[in-house]
């Protein structure tokens, strides 16, 4: 799907002419360098790294600024056969964005759905590196308006060209389903392909193109079926693990058992004599095998003589101790009124919450196919971060990054993990040493013992109620292992102080409380390789805050829903939050009778400008104390929904992922090792524990916010709050276990 | 040894310890069958061996000898040249828009197809029981359940 466009960059590197279609092997390509009215930002690629891009996005909570290509025309290619190619720098990893983004451009291009072909472009001269980062639920929200502008610009250029071809004034040409007609004229329709074929000079629109009114939308807002599903159903979809080249070899890389250990000595031992072995690669802190088959590579790996540095052999308890409020670097990230003095007297309630480290558990382990030639590197990889892969491989091989092409395949579950670039770097080192294509695919043990994980967290909450049952003051102190900050340049560590946009995501108290304070502690010396996980700190922070709010509501003898509504302000986000709370209450039957032994729990959050409230219907199996979640109701206002069918699937993902963490998942550390090599010791939620999920959409505007991650936030607290109603006992640690 | 996959006979080496999954993927190029755990837990690698759902990541080649293997590439009649010839389970998964990332889906569909061969009128609990040993990290479980139930209806229509 992607490889046939690998020659595209070469064309674009050639001289850049204004307003020219240039002939390519496949047809006509709109010249780059046209700066039209639609161009939004002109940040050059390479300069703002992907990670800085993340910083900007998270700071704002949603959407722009994200660097866009210089030319809006970089997104498209229209062939004489009337096919419209749409080049997407974001990867499809199940979120359905290739479909949603296609809807957006089809709308403004005024084409037939069948005309559009979506191509995952990977790295490209036409797109800034930061656009190749697929993260933070921002693919649709950050590209919605820029893509509409880009597509509308191209549509207007086609109209102008058509007007010339038909010798009619521009005002009398209209577009419809990929062709252009002159009003009151008997001349035939011109398809976009025909216009492209017959046009040499292109005119830049003098004015900013007009965008369609939402009442005329044919694609946006419609539950259009996913464009990638047929391939995924007949087995032809290609993921990084499936990438193939003639003559390719297979790699395996040595990894430590003990967390934090590094390779300090290596000898090939008997590995070279093992069947199928082509080469043993030993370099600084790196030992790997290249063999004719994957199993031969792994067999030979066991024959290497390796020496690892000795590290402290920690247990889970040691990690908990390290991640404790007051330890590490702390910083106040939210403050109003006089919280500390108000919390120094009266009846102050205090509670401590914890969440454990957890894995991404994506079912496709990390994988890359790399071919290193003399002056050129080509990579096929399951990645959320094609630009980052290019930079990391360039650095590791000492290559110019312009000589590296990264093809972004389908991703078999990303979940933040696949912004990691290691697998591609390792495969590149192996390929360089033999001069042949090498495929490296991690196995499950490597994923579990040497992968990345969500950091453990600790939360101390304090609150004081007035005689009227309202919160006078509230404080959230949060400690967490690093999520994002360590990936930033060192000078930014002191700029941010704590992992504000990663671990502290939504650590702030989203309720109207006159005196409140949130403090975050950044614990950056854990032996675990902590990393992005869906929603970053969202699940942990919302679990703690929304469970504690429920505790306060019960102390105040108030209904948990009413208590929340009473503590929401009159700003627009708070009003939207009230609406989703009310909507979820109605849909879930809040306050109505339930089957015996069942209870409802409620929780809500704001994330990436989206507001979401969830109610969980729960019972407890009296024989084994198992928590059973029967039904989850979600009310969500993501601003505006581009594809309701896709959005519902994303919400189901968030609920199930969060529920798996709520009920089951916990990464244990024992004697310095991850105490799990496979799913037998680290199980995931399965169908037998899956609740019914109802979703109510509220749309408060015309701009979409993120939808993939926000629903992960409230689920743990919603379940916990229901459990508390049933048992009278308050659980304060994930996964929830009744003892 | 001779290995029969999707009606075709291949000659493959039968060195000790080889498992079916990697022969399918890395030798025969049938990458529709996915690797997830290597321990037969997650179900991503499920194929049919003599019609029975089998975890190919723990199936030694020696055991497969003389048997007939069907993978996702062979599940539909026409080797997936078009949407018209999809197996009812595939058609149902498309109709119900079941997959998200898609990595586990070959295994889900192979498990479902074998299950429905033995039970064309499954109750919801039977579907849950049959499908609960296949992981889906994208949380498509309710859709998978709907897909299997819809596939049963499509099979009824065919017969």
TL;DR?
The complex is a heterodimer of chains A (739) and B (159). With 739 residues, chain A is an alpha+beta fold.
Please provide a written account of the structure.
The complex is a heterodimer of chains A (739) and B (159). Chain A has 18 helices and 28 strands. In chain A, strands 11-12-9-19-16-17-18 form a seven-stranded mixed sheet. A five-stranded mixed sheet of chain A has the order 14-22-21-20-15. In chain A, a hairpin with a 2-residue loop joins strand 11 and strand 12 (286-291). Chain B has 159 residues and is an alpha+beta fold. In chain B, 40% of the residues lie in helices and 12% in strands. Chain B has helices at residues 20-27, 61-64, 72-75, 88-95, 105-118, 124-131, 141-158, and strands at residues 2-5, 8-11, 46-49, 52-55, 68-70. A five-stranded mixed sheet of chain B has the order 2-1-5-3-4. In chain B, a hairpin with a 2-residue loop joins strand 3 (46-49) and strand 4 (52-55). The termini of chain B are far apart. The model of chain B has no long low-confidence stretch (mean pLDDT 94). Chains A and B meet through helix 6 and helix 17 of A and helix 1, helix 3, helix 4, helix 5 and helix 6 of B.
Name the descriptors.
heterodimer; A: 739 residues; alpha+beta; seven-stranded mixed β-sheet; five-stranded mixed β-sheet; 18 helices; 28 strands; disordered N terminus; B: 159 residues; 7 helices; 12% strand
């Amino acid at each position: 799907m992607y490889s046939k466009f690998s020659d595209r960059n070469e064309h674009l590197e050639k001289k850049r002419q204004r307003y020219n279609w240039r002939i390519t092997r496949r047809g006509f390509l709109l010249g780059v360098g046209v700066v039209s009215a639609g161009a939004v930002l002109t940040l050059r690629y390479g300069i703002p790294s992907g990670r800085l891009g993340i910083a900007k996005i998270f700071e704002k909570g949603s959407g722009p600024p994200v660097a866009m290509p210089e030319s809006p025309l970089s997104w498209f290619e229209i062939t004489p056969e009337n096919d419209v190619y749409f080049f997407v720098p974001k990867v499809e990893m199940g979120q359905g964005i290739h479909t949603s983004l296609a809807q957006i451009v089809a709308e403004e291009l005024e084409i037939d759905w069948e005309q559009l072909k979506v191509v995952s472009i990977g790295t490209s001269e036409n797109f800034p590196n930061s656009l190749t980062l697929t993260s933070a639920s921002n693919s649709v929200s950050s590209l919605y308006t820029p893509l509409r502008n880009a597509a509308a610009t191209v549509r207007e250029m086609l109209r102008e060209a058509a007007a010339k071809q038909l010798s009619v004034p521009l005002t009398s040409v209209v577009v419809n389903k990929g062709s252009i007609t002159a009003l009151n004229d008997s001349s035939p329709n011109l398809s976009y392909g025909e216009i492209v074929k017959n046009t040499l000079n292109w005119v830049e629109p003098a004015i900013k193109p007009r965008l369609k009114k939402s009442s005329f939308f044919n694609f946006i807002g419609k539950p259009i079926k996913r464009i990638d599903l047929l391939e995924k159903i007949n087995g032809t979809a290609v993921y990084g693990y499936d990438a193939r080249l003639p003559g390719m070899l297979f790699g395996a890389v040595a990894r430590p058992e003990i967390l934090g250990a590094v390779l300090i000595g290596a000898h090939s031992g008997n590995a070279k004599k093992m069947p199928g072995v082509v080469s043993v690669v030993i370099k600084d802190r790196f030992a790997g095998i290249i063999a004719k088959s994957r199993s031969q590579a792994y067999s030979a790996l066991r024959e290497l003589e390796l020496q690892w540095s000795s590290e402290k052999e920690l247990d889970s308890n040691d990690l908990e101790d390290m991640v404790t409020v007051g330890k590490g670097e702390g910083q106040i990230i939210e403050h109003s009124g006089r919280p500390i003095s108000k919390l120094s007297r009266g009846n102050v309630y205090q509670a401590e919450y914890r969440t454990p480290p957890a894995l991404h558990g994506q079912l496709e382990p990390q994988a890359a196919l790399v071919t290193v030639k003399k002056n050129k590197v080509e990579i096929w990889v399951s990645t959320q971060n094609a630009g980052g892969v290019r930079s990391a491989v360039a650095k590791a091989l000492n290559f110019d990054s312009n000589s590296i092409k990264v093809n972004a395949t389908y991703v078999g579950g990303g979940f933040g993990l696949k912004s990691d670039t290691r697998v591609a770097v390792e495969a590149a080192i192996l390929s360089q040493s033999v001069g042949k294509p090498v495929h490296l695919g991690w196995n499950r043990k490597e994923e579990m013992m040497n992968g990345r994980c969500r950091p453990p967290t600790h939360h101390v909450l304090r609150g004081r109620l007035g005689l009227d049952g309202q919160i006078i003051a509230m404080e959230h102190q949060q400690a967490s292992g690093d999520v994002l900050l360590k990936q930033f340049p060192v000078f930014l560590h002191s700029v941010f102080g704590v992992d504000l946009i990663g671990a502290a995501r939504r650590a702030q108290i989203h309720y109207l409380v006159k005196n409140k304070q949130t403090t975050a502690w950044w614990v950056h010396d854990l032996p675990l390789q902590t990393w992005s996980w869906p929603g970053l700190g969202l699940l942990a922070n919302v679990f703690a805050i929304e469970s504690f709010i429920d505790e306060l509501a019960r102390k105040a003898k108030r209904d948990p829903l009413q208590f929340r509504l009473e503590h929401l302000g009159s700003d627009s986000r708070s009003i939207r939050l009230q609406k989703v709370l009310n909507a979820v209450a109605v849909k879930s039957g809040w306050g109505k009778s339930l089957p015996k032994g069942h209870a409802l729990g409620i929780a809500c959050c704001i994330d990436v400008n989206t507001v979401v409230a969830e109610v969980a219907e729960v019972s407890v199996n009296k024989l084994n104390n198992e928590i059973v979640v029967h039904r989850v109701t979600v009310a969500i206002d993501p601003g505006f929904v581009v594809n309701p069918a896709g959005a519902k699937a994303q919400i189901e993902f968030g609920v199930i992922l969060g529920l798996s963490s709520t009920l089951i998942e916990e990464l244990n550390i024992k004697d310095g090792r991850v105490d799990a090599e496979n799913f037998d010791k680290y199980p995931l939620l399965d169908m037998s524990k899956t609740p019914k999920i109802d979703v109510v959409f509220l749309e408060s505007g015309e701009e979409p916010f993120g939808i993939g991650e926000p629903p992960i936030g409230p689920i743990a607290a919603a379940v916990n709050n229901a459990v508390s109603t049933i048992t009278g006992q308050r659980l304060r640690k994930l996964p929830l276990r009744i003892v | 040894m001779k290995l029969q996959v999707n009606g075709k006979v291949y000659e493959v080496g039968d060195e000790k310890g080889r498992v079916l999954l990697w022969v399918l993927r890395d030798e025969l190029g049938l990458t529709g069958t996915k690797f997830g755990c290597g321990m037969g837990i997650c179900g991503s690698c499920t194929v049919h061996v003599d019609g029975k759902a089998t975890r190919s990541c723990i199936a030694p080649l020696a055991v497969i000898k003389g048997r007939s293997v069907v993978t996702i590439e062979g599940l539909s009649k026409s080797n997936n040249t078009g949407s018209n010839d999809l197996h009812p389970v595939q058609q149902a998964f498309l109709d119900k828009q079941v997959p998200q990332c898609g990595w586990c889906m070959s295994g889900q569909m192979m498990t479902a197809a074998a299950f429905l061969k033995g039970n064309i009128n499954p109750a919801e609990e039977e579907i849950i029981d049959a499908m609960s040993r296949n992981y889906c990290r994208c949380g498509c479980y309710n859709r998978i359940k709907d897909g299997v139930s819809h596939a049963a209806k499509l099979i009824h229509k065919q017969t």
